[in-house]
Design brief:
single chain; Nuclear Transport Factor 2, Chain: A; 9 helices; 23% helix; extended; disordered C terminus
Length: 498
């Protein structure tokens, strides 16, 4: 009997301990739930008995929670910073998404003050200058002589020399300027300006400690519109090249008019050329950047041709006549610049064979190595040696047209059979290969296996301005004519090259 009672007593004790452990574990794992439940119970004043027991068991924790409540159970945006501290409480929440973080780039180095480190030291401010002196330096010896005449001390002379020498451009005029200011009643060198190139110059200014602070400065440029009127005699290419017109403008003019004008046969003595272009110039009147041809005209004995630069709505830039038709044709009449027409199309006495023979193209005499352009968009169907033609290229174009180029010195880069070329692209260079008496280009045009004289070839324009865009085009023409009327003319005298 004793053993049975002792065994049951042990079981009862074990059950009691398990019950106490279970209740303690339940209280430990449900603290947060009890806090939220207790907050609601206090506000709503419920009288449920089980809830009152929970309140009694957790009254100290409830008191702390009431002072600093956690009232929201919804999921918060992780980008919002909620501050819940017993020492400080605010109803303001910071949303990082609203911060303007673009003020300081991530790659910038930041000072302790929070200000980015400047990329270059700012130049000291100088209120006024008493005088400026400009020099044209051609060598270091001349620079030493200039510094010696300025009465600088040895240390100052060495420092100024070190500022000037690395960057000065010895090939231009007025490449050095000294500026002086009155400092403490004495006229002192306060700024050094060194001309580096067409785009930059160096400015070095004296700071309050007497040292010079240097900085690269973009050279100031001026946008100018230039108008030329040229009287042509015999050779249009030489007339243009003897002027101060930029080569880019000359090449653009010849390239555009080569579609409509035979420069050898259509030009007569006394014909006029007019050009209007705009470009950026430095203070030394040096051209920088890419000039743009705005307008060009040729007043010939039998016709007047005008072209206007215009940018289409699609963004493409081209040249058009006053009726809105592109000056460009599908095939160029003269695919070479600066050449002389040495032999025309038709029957002639062959210079080598000695008997009359049909000349199925035209010959353009030019220096060896003169670039040859593709007369139109197309695909190269032959590139190699072709008997008496020497080095020879044939290009097939749309609508059954093809152009042929003979007696070349060499082909252009990547020119071979199957290559796609664009109009105006360099395909080869003038030479003397094959049956030839001198360096020249033999040029032929074929249409469905029928030989055509390139000089009499008349083809429609490649592009026309749409009716919807014509009002804008006419406004552009009016603006260009107004510029013509207000821009002074630079006349060019005769240029005769027989």
């Amino acid at each position: 009997m004793y053993r049975l009672v002792k065994k049951n007593f042990n079981i009862l004790v074990l059950i009691l301990l398990l019950n106490i452990s279970y209740l303690g574990l339940k209280d430990f794992t449900s603290t947060e739930t009890n806090i939220i439940l207790e907050t609601k119970l206090i506000k709503e004043e419920k009288n449920d008995a089980i809830s009152k027991n929970i309140i009694d068991n957790n009254k100290y924790l409830v008191k702390k929670q009431f002072k600093n409540p956690i009232s929201s159970t919804k999921i918060e945006d992780l980008k919002i910073a909620n501050y819940s501290t017993s020492e400080f409480f605010s109803d303001y929440t910071l949303n990082e998404a609203d911060l303007n973080l673009s003020l300081v780039p991530i790659t910038e180095k930041i000072l302790f003050s929070g200000i980015p480190i400047p990329k270059s030291k700012p130049l000291p401010l100088i209120q006024n200058f008493s005088k400026h002196i400009s020099f044209s330096i051609r060598s270091r010896k001349e620079l030493n002589s200039v510094l010696a005449n300025q009465n600088f001390d040895l240390y100052q002379k060495q420092k100024i020399f070190e500022i000037i020498v690395p960057d000065i451009n010895l090939k231009v005029e007025d490449n050095l300027k000294f500026s002086f200011s009155i400092i403490n009643g004495t006229e002192t060198l306060s700024e050094i300006t060194v001309f580096k190139n067409n785009l930059h110059e160096i400015k070095a200014r004296r700071n309050e400690y007497g040292n010079f602070v240097s900085q690269y400065v973009t050279a100031p440029t001026q946008r100018k519109i230039i108008r030329h009127r040229i009287t042509v005699y015999n050779n249009i290419s030489s007339s243009l090249q003897n002027t101060k017109i930029p080569k880019v403008i000359v090449d653009s003019f010849i390239n555009q008019f080569s579609f409509s004008v035979d420069f050898q046969r259509d030009i007569n003595d006394g014909d006029l050329i007019e050009l209007l272009y705009e470009a950026n110039f430095t203070k030394n009147n040096n051209l920088v950047g890419n000039p743009q041809l705005l307008y060009a005209a040729m007043n010939l004995s039998d016709q007047n041709i005008e072209l206007f630069r215009y940018k289409l709505r699609e963004g493409q830039v081209d040249y058009f006549d006053p009726r809105g038709k592109s000056i460009r044709k599908s095939i160029m009449r003269t695919p070479i610049s600066g050449a002389r027409l040495s032999s025309r199309f038709g029957m002639r006495k062959h210079p080598i064979l000695g008997y009359s023979k049909m000349h199925r193209g035209v010959d353009f005499a030019a220096r060896r190595g003169t670039p040859i352009m593709a007369a139109g968009d197309g695909r190269v169907t032959f590139a190699g040696r072709n008997g008496s033609y020497g080095k020879f290229i044939e290009i097939r174009h749309l609508n059954g047209f093809s152009t042929r180029y003979g007696h070349l010195h060499k082909f252009g880069k990547k020119i071979k059979k199957g290559t796609v070329v664009k109009q105006g692209e360099t395909i080869g260079f003038v030479g003397n290969s094959g049956r030839s008496t001198g360096p020249h280009l033999h040029y032929e045009v074929k249409h469905k296996n029928r030989i055509i004289n390139p000089m009499t070839l008349k083809l429609p324009s490649r592009m026309e301005i749409s009716d919807n865009e014509m009002p804008n085009f006419y406004a552009n023409i009016s603006l260009t004519r107004e510029r013509l009327a207000t821009t002074p003319i630079i006349n060019t005298s005769k240029f005769v090259t027989k």
